[in-house]
Each structure stands twice: as structure tokens, then as C-alpha cells.
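Trying the structure run again after the queue cleared.
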Amino acid sequence: MTFFKYLRDHIYSILIVLVGMTFVELVLFLDPRVNFHMGTLIYTWVLAMVFLVANLSISYLHKRTWYKQLESYQEDLSKELFGARNNEQRFIQNKINNISLEYRNELTELYQNQKDQREYTESWVHDIKVPLAALKLSQDDELDKKLIAEELDQIDYLVDQALYFARLNNFSNDYLIQEQDLNDIVKSCIRTNKRLFISKRIGINLDVTDKKVLTDEKWLSFIINQIVSNSLKYTDQGGK
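Done. C-alpha cells:
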């Protein structure tokens, strides 16, 4: 900020001082009991202006370093602003630092979301190549029809998984809380993965409460499906 801009920001204070000094000089000049020469009045008025300009200049020089820090701070928001010398500057400094902290946190979260999305996309593409490769062999009449059905189920699951992942950013808009039967949801997820249970000969002990729960059915089903699918993926043949 230049000195002239600083003066313009304090124009009302300057006008108040000028009007006040002029009023005082006028009162002294018109008071018959006070013997003031015109030269003395002009001298005191000019002297007051000198003190006013000196005060504004010293104040500006005192704040100039702070203004320069504000101008350079926008070039690097990764650091905290510092150097405040009075309560007004400390108030502005705290506000700017709080806003910058929120900005850095949101930026970090954005980068993390982008990283998660990239990693998920790479993993999803890798996973879906397996059932697609199996389906390419479906032209062979001797291919096991059950295997084809399993691969189709896997593709369907991966597509649903990608759809739910894409909705995560709008999770609150796609969330409907209702009373649901937890036992029914778990059994439905097991039926969805029944071919994997059968093909890997994996047993399961089901012990789920019959009580109702308040939840969103599709999101809870998605989460349980994730757990069951990963469990089947890393459970040995014939496991439990």
C-alpha cells in the first residue's frame, strides 16, 4: 500500500482534524476576550497540520512492513502469517491464518480424494480384466457355464462398486434412513456372493440379531458386500 492510498483510507480522520482546528481557530479569533493576531492563528493551524502529517507518516512507516507481508503472503499460503504489532493487525492475522488453515486442509483432502480415486480406478480396471478375459473364452462350448455365471456376477458387483464409489462425494444426498432388518440384509449379501462360496467351498457361520436397525439399506448392503467379498478373496479354498 502506498502512502497516498493510506492517506485516502484516513481521509475522514484528516477532515475531522481540519474541521476541528478551523473551528477552534475561528472561536479564538471571534472571542473579544482573547487577543490573537492573525499570524498567530495561521501559525498554530499550520503547526497542527505538521503534527497531523507527522503522525500519519509515522503510523504509515510503522505499518508498511505489515502491508508488505500481506502482499507477499498470497504468493505462499502454505505458511502462517506473522509479524502483527497491534491488536488490529493480530485480529486480521488470526482471521487470515484460520482461513488459510481451512484452505490447506481442504486442499489436502482434495489431493487425498484424487489419490484414492486414482488407486481405486487402477484396482478396478485390474479386477474387471479377469472376468472379461474369462468371458472371451465363452465361445468355447466346453467352458463351464457356472464359471461364466460367476464371472458375470463379478462384473455386476464391480460395476455396482464403481457406482457407489462415484456417489461417495454426494453421500448425504443419497442417504435414506429407514428401519431395516439386519438379518435380511446380511443374508442378501451372502446370496449375492453364493457362487464364490460354492466355488471355493467356503463355509459360513451366520449369527445375526433379528432386531431392526436404522440405516440406509443400499449403503449398508454395499459395505457388507465389501467385507464379504474381501473375506472370500483372501480365504483359502475350503476355509470357513
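The mean pLDDT is 76. Worth checking whether this holds up in the mutant runs.
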